[in-house]
Amino acid sequence: MNYIKHLNAVFQQFAKDSRLNPTHISLYIALFQFWNINRFPETFYINREEVMKMAKIGSKATYHRCLKNLSDWSYIFYMPSHNPYKGSQIKMLKFGTSSETSIDTTYGTSSEQVLGQALVPNINSNKQIENNNKRKLPKNENEVLDFFKKRKWPSIEGKKFFNHYTSIGWKLGGKIKIFDWQASAENWILKAAEIKKEQTVKEVFQNRDNLKTNKNKDYGQPL
């Protein structure tokens, strides 16, 4: 999947399509990001709340309307799910490939009609992009401990980080795969530093006795 060619082609189509409004484009970009996170599979599942949050859409009615529009107008293929425990499924129609998607400017083409030609796999995709998308996870706990040591953080924090993400399969929020553990470790250190700072401030205020008074008062002095 050559995502640069794809985005260039789809933005050219956006410019020509007068039916689209900013919400349609925002929703498409959000779906593209989840497609990217999942490493461009033929189909992938979506969570409505997550997509709405990323697309900055506050209304469920607007979300479903724009999703159906994008499907009807041959930008995606939307397969809704009525199972509350199973998300809806999306196929992103590919643009800018050798079998480049062509949308009927008379608006007479449906996503079902172009599905066969749009989802042709791009065999000549850039190998370097594929290599960059490979997950980068630590070989073992010692590698994580060395990383924290180089940044002058105690080994206990490294152990916490390693055990936490190992237990949830190296995923953010239990859903999104981590592709660079060192970047996640940097965020962990920043968060730990913030927590440590907040605890220090809290302890200072707790140790300060604002109600401490002198028992040897001279009550003859005016207030």
What does this protein structure show overall?
With 223 residues, the protein is mainly alpha-helical. It has two domains: 3-121, Arc Repressor Mutant, subunit A (Orthogonal Bundle), CATH 1.10.10; 141-207, no CATH class. 52% of the residues lie in helices and 7% in strands. It contains nine helices and five strands. The protein starts with a helix and ends in a 16-residue tail after the last helix.
Short account of what is shown:
The protein has 223 residues and is mainly alpha-helical. It has nine helices and five strands; from the N terminus they run ααβααββααααββα. The strands form two sheets. Strands 1-3-2 form a three-stranded antiparallel β-sheet. A two-stranded antiparallel ribbon has the order 4-5.
Name the descriptors:
single chain, 223 residues, mainly alpha, Arc Repressor Mutant, subunit A, 2 domains, three-stranded antiparallel β-sheet, two-stranded antiparallel ribbon, 9 helices, elongated
- Give a count of the beta strands, DSSP E runs of length 2 or more: 5
The largest pleated sheet is described as:
3 strands, antiparallel
Number of domains: 2
CATH class of the largest domain: Mainly Alpha
Following the backbone from N to C, one meets helices and strands in this order, namely HHEHHEEHHHHEEH
Q: How much β-strand is present in the residues?
A: 5-15%
Gross morphology is elongated
Uncertain runs: 98-126
Assign the CATH topology of the largest domain.
Arc Repressor Mutant, subunit A
Number of helices: 9
Q: Architecture of the largest domain in CATH?
A: Orthogonal Bundle
Report the C-alpha radius of gyration, rounded.
27 Å
Helix content: 40-55%
How far do the termini sit from each other? 80 Å
Name the average pLDDT: 78
Instruction: Give the strand line-up of the largest sheet.
Output: 1-3-2
Structural class: mainly alpha
